[in-house]
Amino acid sequence: MIVNAAPPFKELSLNNYLFNDESLKLYEDYISKTLDHVQKFLANRKFYKGDDLEEIRNNKEKAKLVSIANSSPIDHVLNELNSLYIENAICFHNPNYVAHLNCPITLPSIVAELIATTVNTAVETWDQSTSATFIEQEVIRWICNEFSFNDQSDGVFTSGGTQSNFMALLMARDHYAFENFGINIKQNGWSEEVNKFKIFCSEKSHFSIQKNAALLGLGYDAVIPVKVDAKMRMDTEALYVAIEKTKQEGNIPIAVVATLGTTDYGSFDPLQTIGKIAKEQNMWLHVDGAYGGCYVLTETHNHHFKGMDMVDSVTVDFHKTLFQPVSCSAFLVQDKSHFKYVSYYADYLNPIENKDIERPNLIEKSIQTTRRFDALKVWLTLKTLGTKTIAAYLEQVHELAKQVYDYMNDNPNFELAHVPELSTVVFRYKNSEAAHEPTHDDVNLYIKNTLFKAGKASIASTKLNGNIFLKFTLLNPKNTIQNLLNIVRMIEETGKQYQPKTELL
Ligand SMILES: *Cc1c(COP(=O)(O)O)cnc(C)c1O
User: Fold this and answer.
1) Residue 38 contacts by C-beta under 8 Å, 6 or more apart in sequence?
2) CB 110: neighbour CB atoms within 10 A?
3) Is the shortest distance between the CB of 391 and ligand 1 below 6 Å?
4) What is the pTM of this model?
5) Alpha helix (H) ranges present in 249-357?
6) Which fold has domain 388-497?
7) Which carries the bigger pLDDT value, residue 16 or residue 196?
8) CA distances from 36 to 105, 115, 144, 160, 423 (A)
9) Contact partners, residue 204, CB within 8 Å, separation at least 6
10) Rounded CA separation 370/445 (Å)
């Protein structure tokens, strides 16, 4: 048999684009060019350049991937990127950005991102992650200790609160089915009884509870919203009644979600009472601490965490209140054996015969396979800043929220929705001349959209009892009350300018 001659090598570019020992000089060059663009980003004084429809349309064109068959110099491409993206990006560190739960990020976390991305460790199996495994484990240990969990507890990094909440509800479902009906959902799939499973959370809990219930095959209707008190905390009397009612209807209450730090109001559900009810009823108790969880570090808020000993699982988002870049979140369980509901032993990755206590495979705790080494940024932040600095940041943004509240509360142009418990303030501008509700809604949306489009301030909106309210989410410890009052003044001025639409008959 005649062996075919090897096909000729395709001509390769002389430029070595791949990261390796030969491309270090080029790596340095790329990094220094990147720094120029970072400087440009920081030179933007506004949180946003402003909204211009023609420019938005142009940018949509500019983003198109045309003529990419051949290489281009990086300088060229970075310049293009600058005008398409960096110049238009929202600066979360800017003090006039007070919209969503995006925080300014610590410098060590950025360095950690650079290292983790360059080394490109996947925290998956020991033979890919080696000692990175211990860094993730130690960060998990640290946060478990902060919640006063014992050494039976464990956890894993996730892509965010939504994924952490998914894991919690999956465990709650599978654990209840297994313990009470001997049903192994992981192995055998669906079963009749599961149709009756119900999950309880406050009406102010995060939408990902409903969304995850749907993804888990339980459906939105498996989630029973429990009403809140005047402080936006779950009404535990109402929880008790709702559970009893569910049982009378022939359904099965399997889990309660207590939110520590609701997304809109920063309110803390009363954990101790909820915990007692959940345990009496043999239900899984999950804490959604995506927003408020890191406040366990503070003296001002750690009393809200009494009752953590009764908790089965916890969600905590470091990309919200630990000043970390996206993504950075963890899911914790009080009893690590519950990770059996997600573990899988794949022949090619982590065969069970190869289980080695000294060289663990983190994949056994995750619903992801290839996973980023997000724990490194937390580790480097903790080691560099220390927890006291972080606690001071968190207390500072809470203090700012209280000060804004006090000011608005004395101002007849504003109606406040709640007393801030964390670092959000929900309010609306009340134009005394506006006679009816729809006008208030229009004015408040007008204020929000006008200030955003002008690049003056980014404020969020939400609904309370069907009406539009505005929201400050304060996560920037470098913000000042003077600056926030300046935003308040812009809101008043913009509200005054609003011209009601004249009705066309
Ligand atoms: C933000 C938030 C979530 C979702 O977290 P992501 O990290 O955005 O997926 C869940 N619960 C609460 C209370 C939140 O505030």
Assistant:
1) none
2) 16
3) no
4) 0.95
5) 271-280, 318-321
6) Aspartate Aminotransferase, domain 1 (3.90.1150)
7) 196
8) 19, 20, 40, 31, 34
9) 228, 232, 259, 262, 263, 264, 265, 267
10) 42
CA distance 34 to 321: 27
Q: Are 332 and 147 in contact (CB under 8 A)?
A: yes
Separation of alpha carbons 268 and 36, rounded Å: 43
Residues of the chain with CATH 3.90.1150.170: 388-497
**End-to-end alpha-carbon separation of the chain, Å?**
89
Quick one: which atom of ligand 1 is closest to the CA of 205?
Answer: 13
Q: Where in the chain is the domain with CATH 3.40.640.10?
A: 122-376
Q: Residue 44's pLDDT is what?
A: 80
Average pLDDT, the chain: 94
User: Nearest CA to 485 among 392, 411, 395, 396?
Assistant: 411
pLDDT band at 14 (very low <50, low <70, confident <90, very high): low
Structure tokens at 430: 């009340």
pLDDT of residue 505: 46
Which segment of 2-11, 101-110, 111-120, 484-493 scores lowest on mean pLDDT? 2-11
Q: What whole-number distance in Å separates Cα of residue 19 and Cα of residue 201?
A: 48
Rounded Cα–Cα distance for residues 139 and 330 (Å): 10
What's the one-letter identity of residue 96?
N
Amino acid type, 127? D
Q: 122-376: what CATH class? A: alpha beta
Q: How far is the CA of 421 from the centre of ligand 1 (A)?
A: 17
Question: What DSSP line would sit under 139-153, residue for residue?
Answer: HHHHHHHHTT--TT-
The span from the CA of 168 to the CA of 212, in Å, is 10
Q: What pLDDT, in 10s, does the model give residues 237-257?
A: 999 999 999 999 999 999 999
- Atom 15 in ligand 1: which residue has the minimum CA distance? 263
Residue range 210-221: average pLDDT? 98
> Ligand 1: does its nearest atom lie under 6 Å from the Cβ of 208?
yes
Question: Which of the two residues, 37 and 348, has the higher pLDDT score?
Answer: 37
Q: How far is the CA of 319 from the centre of ligand 1 (A)?
A: 10
Angle at 476 between CA 263 and CA 112, to 5 degrees: 95
97-98 sheet: strands from edge to edge: 97-98, 458-464, 467-473, 424-429, 414-416
